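Thought: the user wants the 3D structure for the chain below. I'll pass the sequence to the structure tool as-is, report back what it returns, then summarize two notable features.
Action: structure_tool
Action Input:
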Amino acid sequence: MTASSTSTGPRPARLRRGRYSRSQKQDIRAALLFISPWILGFLIFTAWPVIYSAYLSLTDYDVINAPNFIGLDNYRELLADPKIALSLWNTLYFTLIQVPVYVVVSLAFALLLNQAGRSAGFFRTAFFLPKMTPPVAVGILLLLLFNGQSGLINTVLGWFGIAGPAWTTDPDWVKPGLILISLWSVGSSVIILLAALRNVPTELYDSARVDGANWWQQTLKITVPMISGSIFFIFIVHSIAAFQTFSEAYTAFFGSGNSTYSNDAALFYAIYLFQQAFEYLHMGYASAMAWVLFVIILVITLIQMKVSKRFVYLEGDQR
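Observation:
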């Protein structure tokens, strides 16, 4: 075959790919212009701080003086710090109990709201309003509701002859109290699950009733599998949030002048990180703590994503 014969004929499509018309280029420029504020905000306030914190984690930095590069010393110190192990245990304990309870309570309320009929709009608003409460106010609310002597929770338990525990001073009850007060903000998850419930085909329930399935069987075999994607989303999001628990616990046990002997039970990882960074000005050490937390959350999320393939139903899934 001659060289001249190879140059004839239409140009391969792969060479024409990636070319844009003038109008398409204008659309792309317009789109980039519109999203440029977000891009700049992300680069300046998110990407750069994350990258810089990785550098600071390798330095001795107290905010006042220039960072002094020390390599992996901060990470070695993490391994020897007993409060790291304590705060990680408190955070893990809180997460392992709070997240499943949060999801179950959210699902229970969503199932109730799904039967509300015309009044569902009012109840959706009522359930969501507590979510608007500032976290600091929720921390103060914890002290008022769970006060061992005069709190509302123990008062109600006393009506039934039950002596309530010292929620805010007994180390064994500090984290259960925080778990219970965290249910104050289930409203957003209830709304998400309610929307998912409304999308479950009614034909499935009709067929199940014909086959003699009761409400419980329909819930387990139809409702939960059909909304498993939404449940998994809530599970992931609140697992990440639980590992970063800070505001309520800090307000109740570290920022209110509360007695100090219960503080170790409420010393979550994010609180200890905050103390190192802004109370002791160990910014390099705190940056190392932040990256360790990032890796922990990343690993747990990847595990959850892997496990979800066996339990989460997606529309069109042929498994």
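Final Answer: Structure generated. The chain has one domain: 81-311. The first strand starts at residue 59 and ends at 60.
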